[in-house]
Amino acid sequence: MIVDDETMTLRNLVAIVEDEASLEVVATAQNGVDALQQTRDTRPDVVVMDLYLPGEFDGVEAIRRIHTLLNPPRVIATTSFDLESYTRGALEAGAVGFILKNDAETYLTRAIQAAAEGDPIVSPQTTSRLIKSFLKPTTAPEIAQARERIGSLTPRELQVAHMIGHGKSYKQIATELHIAADTVKSTVTRALLKSGADNGAQLAFFVGQARLDIEGAV
Fold it and tell me: Is the same domain home to 90 and 170?
């Protein structure tokens, strides 16, 4: 399902997705309320969600509400502007990744396929923004809370989470660490259970906030 308030942009995104034979757009919506209802009605595997939506609530809140549904779809957040507050808000609400609309023609279908497999994806420009946000000063309580969340993670789990935060896909991580892609997925799954994170992207935020010196970090 694709959600965007601008009709022309919505049509363009639908065309990009439908150009990929393995993908099908089962529904569209142009506001948060309709997006939530369409998600309930059509049960899509992946939702591409614009963050700037008119009406009762915006895309971030729509993601948060979708995430509370039984067996929710994976959500990819999109916007025209690379604003840190929206990026963080979307990932904290439960989005598995974030891409800019300018990157859609190149990355959207790849992002949907990756999201369907549980692989976090963030477009290159946004990855740079996230890395910078990790380096910004964080309050002592935030650091302490993040370290408590990830306190039981193994060095390998921390390393994988750190690489996700730098925009690496599971396949890229597997190649660089000389391990199987399934091993990367199982490593992330264990780390999610331990930390309480909802997805790999959120896990990467926790690790970034903890300000740890991670061995083997990129």
Answer: no
Q: Is 134 exposed, middle or buried (0-12, 13-18, 19+ CB in 10 A)?
A: middle
**Is 153 in the same domain as 170?**
yes
Boundary (domain end) residue, out of 83, 110, 132: 132
Q: Cα separation of 59 and 31, whole Å? A: 8
218 falls within a domain: no
Torsion, CA 47, CA 100, CA 96, CA 11, rounded to 10: 10
Q: Do 122 and 196 belong to one domain?
A: no
Alpha-carbon distance of 166 to 175, in angstroms, equals: 15
Q: Do 32 and 89 share a domain, yes or no?
A: yes
Give 164's strand partners: none
Distances (CA, A) of 74 to 7, 23, 77, 114, 213: 23, 15, 10, 10, 31
CATH number at residue 146: 1.10.10.10
Please state the pTM of the whole predicted model. Answer: 0.70
| Cα–Cα distance for residue pair 32/52, rounded to 1 Å | 9
Residue 7 belongs to what domain range?
A: 2-132
Q: What string of pLDDT tens digits covers the 218 residues of the chain?
A: 999 999 999 999 999 999 999 999 999 999 999 999 999 999 999 999 999 898 899 999 999 999 999 999 999 999 876 556 667 778 788 888 888 888 888 889 988 988 887 776 666 555 555 555 554 556 788 888 888 989 999 999 999 988 887 778 788 899 999 999 889 989 999 999 999 888 787 788 788 878 776 554 44
